[in-house]
Specification:
By secondary structure, this protein is an alpha+beta fold. It has four helices and three strands, in the order βααββαα.
């Protein structure tokens, strides 16, 4: 199982800004988890944890995950991101799963 990505949010930074800054590692982490989940028939997973550091020393942890019904859409989006970031080594396997999930979706209809 891949290790969830750990993102730390400090001070006044908002989560959208953090995710935009970390778009590449988030895309790679999500892709690795999607490939793992599809290979091992896992129905859901957590691929990242956002740790929010508060000024009073406390922290909150938000977990980001994906469930089976969203795998096809997630795979399509991650393929586009991987191409954008020139992370080509993961693309062929991801495309194989996209093709598989599209067939699976058509059969269910």
């Amino acid at each position: 199982m891949p290790k969830p990505l750990e993102l730390i949010l400090e001070g006044e930074e908002d989560i959208q800004s953090l995710l935009h800054e970390c778009k590449r590692p988030v895309a790679v982490s999500l892709t690795n988890f999607l490939l793992w989940a599809l290979e091992y028939n896992i129905d859901s997973f957590i691929f990242a944890e956002v740790i929010v550091q508060h000024p009073d020393g406390f922290q909150d942890v938000m977990k980001m995950g994906c469930k089976r019904p969203d795998y096809l859409e997630a795979c399509r989006k991650q393929l586009a991101h991987l191409i954008e970031f020139e992370e080509y080594e993961l693309c062929p396997k991801l495309q194989e799963w996209i093709d598989y999930l599209e067939v699976e979706e058509k059969v269910k209809k």
